[in-house]
Amino acid sequence: MALKNPAQDLQELADAVGDLQKNILEVVYEPDARKTLRSFSLREAARWIGVSVPTLRALCAEHGLGAENGRSGSRGGLLLTAEEMATLRKQAAAAAAAGGRKRRLLPGRVEGETVQVVASMIFKGGTGKTTLAVHFAQYLALRGYRVLVLDLDPQASATTLFGLNPAAEVEDDATFYGVVGGQRTMAEIVRPTYWPGLDLVPANLALALTDFEIAGRAKLEPRPIHLYLRDALRDVKENYDVVLLDCRPDLGMTTLNALLAATGIFVPVTMSQLDIASMGEFFRFSSFLLEQLPQFGLGEEGIGLDFVKLVINRFDPTQAAQAQCHHWLLARMPDWVLRTPMLQTAALGHANAQWQTLYEYEPDEGRRRAYNRALEAFDRLCFDLESTLWQAWGRKGSPHALPSASTLTRGGAHD
Ligand SMILES: Nc1ncnc2c1ncn2[C@@H]1O[C@H](COP(=O)(O)OP(=O)(O)O)[C@@H](O)[C@H]1O
Ligand SMILES: [Mg+2]
User: Which of 10, 20, 159, 397 lies most in the core, judged by the most C-beta atoms within 10 Å?
Assistant: First the structure.
């Protein structure tokens, strides 16, 4: 039996889902329906800042920072907010002599180093673009970089992970769509998040219209259709060390704009036959698009890409076929493949169930070991991504090594 009024029915469905989402937000983020960031143990904070636990404890005492962990049932010790961690990082850096150590404590850009605009991109959905972009953004913030995440996908997964309801809390023109239409500037739509040092340009469904908007404008104004994003970023990007673009799963105008705005691209793929085929098509089509650009007045010299890296996702080293594929890719094109793959992990599902990332999630004791293994794998991955940025900046040496996540449990109670 045909639906009598499909448009109205679908609208009703949309409203019901919107109510459900609102409900979930209220339950998950109670009491005030706002997402917040948990505090970090002294051990965690020392690990992220790059100092020893005793040094950090002394700094906390000196500056009167940190609060005793008063939560019942949890382990004792000092707890620090992310804001306090940022302050302590500066204090630790101020005490360090100039040089490599200072640079590792305050790893952000210095004069002469340009902002890295990194796109998480491939035209297939579900390969881990958002997971990669959001985890890397939070990792970078914990390491002391200033980061902007730009959600370019109308599905708005990154926006949702940052605790916003795209339908209810993001106006249509407060997205890249509004920038293309000329209603807003990028600077006007950047919002702070509950993560210090990490800002967000959110998305909502209106972004789905961006490609039509760009195509429509091409007839009215002489503006190059592929440079909206690059131009719009010009007035905000200097506030950051890294801008991450979470792209939509296609190669339309918005994604073309991301390609032209990017200084680097991470392409998350799984080692499934379909993904590999899709990846090949992605590179073929990207290459075709770039070849067309001179027609629009932009030569290849206008493309400022420092790197393109495949990031193998949902990797399971016990699957011989996957391990072989990874090995083959590394042997055949070592410069194009990130050495550390993103492991398939159930911990991501547990964190997602609470609308959190691995860098936000705090497991109960029963899950801590499995969680630490997942965290360790993501840390290694993000360290590799961070090292790629250091190379792009032309830095010698590498970022400070992050102690293993297993050190977080050793020793236990009174950090
Ligand atoms: N390595 C992984 N292990 C387990 N689940 C994963 C992994 N990577 C992604 N996922 C899950 O797969 C789903 C799709 O990932 P997502 O990052 O949203 O993909 P995309 O942005 O490419 O569409 C999400 O539910 C995410 O939590
Ligand atoms: Mg996504």
Answer: 159
